[in-house]
Amino acid sequence: MLISGKPHKSCVRAGTPQQERELLRDLARKAEQELIGVQMASMDELTLLPNRHGFLALAQLGLDACQQLDRPATLLFFNLDEFKRINYLFGRTEGDKALKTFADVLRIGFRENDVVGRLEGATFVALLTGSGSVDIEAIKARLEEMLDERMATAHSGYEIRFSIGQIEHDPVVHGSVEEMLVEAEKALGR
């Protein structure tokens, strides 16, 4: 490879085994930094869940796998109720804690093969792979129980409550996860 008429540093053959190892280490460090950059661009800093971009990429892979295996998939979407009130009455720091707590509950409340993410603000999603229509009341009760346990030990002075909805994947209607999200956002009134 030529850059400015000169061979690029990575294309120059190192003379000794030591120089070759050093060059390979340098390339590995650069590759690792690139991967970290890509991962950070796909992750929500506050909750450490995939952000909208990361969720779409991961969930599409999950949805593609479900379609190849002829398995169902269901998108759950969550919105924290009265989140603005928590921010207003208790401050942004407490609002951030509420978001982190909810994210943690979602992370442990779903299976490893499900994809959970934070879209924006107080809106979260989960793609349940291999699951058709689910009992959202049972899911809500289980998640609320987990939240109540966490909030009892935090002594924060407020409860975290949420709304939940679901959209079952229909290959005729939803060609992608993005199309499922559009339907979910309409259901949320956005």
From TrEMBL:
Q: Which residues form the GGDEF domain?
A: 71-190
One Gene Ontology term from the biological process aspect of the record = negative regulation of bacterial-type flagellum-dependent cell motility
Which Enzyme Commission numbers does its entry carry?
Answer: 2.7.7.65
User: Which N-terminal residues, if any, form the signal peptide?
Assistant: none
One Pfam match, given by its short name, reads GGDEF
Instruction: Provide the GO MF annotations for this entry.
Output: diguanylate cyclase activity
Q: Which GO terms describe its cellular component?
A: plasma membrane
Please name the InterPro entries in this protein's record: Diguanylate_Cyclase (IPR050469), GGDEF_dom (IPR000160), Nucleotide_cyclase (IPR029787), Rev_trsase/Diguanyl_cyclase (IPR043128)
User: Which EC class does it fall in?
Assistant: transferase
Q: Matching SUPFAM superfamilies, A to Z?
A: Nucleotide cyclase
Q: Which reaction does it catalyse?
A: 2 GTP = 3',3'-c-di-GMP + 2 diphosphate
Identification of the protein by name: diguanylate cyclase
List the source organism: Pseudomonas umsongensis
